[in-house]
Amino acid sequence: MFNIFPLKGSLEHVKGFYCDGVSVGLKPNGANDVAFIRSDVLCDVEAVFTTNQFQAAPIVHFKRYPENFQTNFLLINAKNANAMTGRKGIEDIDTLFASLRATYPALQNPIMSSTGVIGYRLNQEKIAQSFSKFDFEAKNSDGAARAIMTTDSFKKELCLRVEPENGTPFHLGAICKGAGMINPAMATMLCFIVTDAALPKADAKEALSYAVEHSFNAASVDGDTSTNDTVLLLSNGQSGGYDKEAFKEALALLTKHLALEIVRDGEGATKLVAFEITGAATSEEAKKVAKALSNSLLVKTALFGEDPNWGRIASTIGASGVTCNDETLEIKYDDVLVFNNTQRELDKEREMKAAAIMKQPSYTIHCDLGIGSGTFTAYGCDLGHQYVTINADYRS
Amino acid sequence: MFNIFPLKGSLEHVKGFYCDGVSVGLKPNGANDVAFIRSDVLCDVEAVFTTNQFQAAPIVHFKRYPENFQTNFLLINAKNANAMTGRKGIEDIDTLFASLRATYPALQNPIMSSTGVIGYRLNQEKIAQSFSKFDFEAKNSDGAARAIMTTDSFKKELCLRVEPENGTPFHLGAICKGAGMINPAMATMLCFIVTDAALPKADAKEALSYAVEHSFNAASVDGDTSTNDTVLLLSNGQSGGYDKEAFKEALALLTKHLALEIVRDGEGATKLVAFEITGAATSEEAKKVAKALSNSLLVKTALFGEDPNWGRIASTIGASGVTCNDETLEIKYDDVLVFNNTQRELDKEREMKAAAIMKQPSYTIHCDLGIGSGTFTAYGCDLGHQYVTINADYRS
Fold it and tell me: Can you tell me which residues form the catalytic site (chains A, B) (predicted)?
């Protein structure tokens, strides 16, 4: 038995971790644009990266470390993805860390993470200015969470305190960014999770892969996959506490919360919709349908228009390539049945009820395929004018 | 040797075919909404339908005919897709044709095709009114082409006259509709092709499948697949002329032209862009990349914004799951190189040149993966505010 409590803030509650965010002029509006997260003692690292084959320089840099390496420092910049920059992009990271070591000699196996425009070299001079601006003893989660934002309209962070029955409490804290390019293969975003749990390496891998599958990988804004997607889990064991089930559940809660925050902040999104698929032949097929729905432009524009046009839902299911049958299919918006074999036409009353549900900021579209017992829930948002405005102009 | 000439108009030039379009009040603005195409003599039929598993009632109705059946009549309505209507939807078609036979007794194995909203029964009373309004001796391609339009902003038709050297000339004519929901598995549209060539049944299948693969299946507006996609080829042999190579080439030209018209008319589209992929490991992989690019929201919004942000092109290629390598990749906008291994950063001069190309109404984005010899060209359009406006409101 255990209890999980959310705490206000995020990284500052996790023992032995420090962080700060500063502005060095990468963002023209003077907002924070470089951050660090560090630990007093060396941390185990667990990572999940983008499936994009053109992985950005910081990811290639990370992978040069030997397996099971430990680190005590993570540097993050916004406005430049350091992607498609070739060998020079990796050399730039080495140069930066050489310079950081002069200021912060304890540096061991430092990691970098970047987000922003593809195809430009890092502005090393500006980023290096952060080294004299950082307070290395700070626990400034707010400043760090703000520094990693790009098109995000709000900062994303969370802390969970886990209290195992008769055990030592431990914490998980995370800061996260993401708003556009959220995709099916892996939601395009950065998420940095730290924990003071005494986490065994094998458990970390299992818990993180389960958590990512049902959170970031179930979230979708536009179906594109970036070159920089990263989820990092740093654990320093400083609380001395641990409980396998409690940790797994807390990590799943934490990532689910942050993934939904990202979807809710989808570029120009006004709705957060859960696509709950049941009755598919397999869970793999349920996932395929759920993602097809959450990525369909015609579905997304219908959500934006608050139009209970269930035909687009049905058509997308039929096009998704899974086993389905219109005689066993049932579609509900929350608890309102909009389609099944005996009620194929939407009467005025049910149409009005469905339309009312679609006016809410969040709701569930439930599709029971009536074939087997596969289930999966994906999370998506609508697509409105703001998405086009942001992405037609975005170069930051 | 042969010559192929485009003629003004479409179906009216093809011997033995008649068509008309009338208004029966399905479209609230009083525009034509029901059309027929018929032949004096029985026609062979070749068809390609949507890969969507929820095929609309007219498609199910078609498939009930025995293989190699012949027909002399095709009825088409707009505003209602007759999809997800179950058995009732098929019975409605039978009832309509029973009533049409009273007016037009020569009817044999009639075919129906529908486009519009999913999930509503056909308005039989209104559609049946067309039977007394049609001029069954008309060659009114313009009227028929207009009747099948939905969100199309212009009508789509074409006629090609083929003159084999020392042979009898023959014709191919087509009317076509499509603007939204254009997708990778099969472009969502209706295309009705008629020919008076003395076309052998086996050649028809081969020529149509080749033509569709490189035209409608290479066209993409938004990646969705409708329940009603249909390409029909009716041949009545009335010209007595035929040449296998000439027919194949003419059919490919005809479908390519109409597919590009559909992309150009993509809902709210302002650009027509060819994604020409070369150097892929296989042609299948080239196709995968070409379609990923033409379907990517981030690419499409960048086209709309006229932003030479090649990073989005590269990122989409990397995410497409094909063999690729950023050291062999080369990206050009028309003849302007924007990325290769030695020129990774876009200098001001090349950026301005690329931006100038993107201001054109159509251009080619050429990606050479530098891996093998696979090639494929897909056609796409940009995604602007109009797309959102049309699809947030569309119920017609």
Answer: 188 (nucleophile)
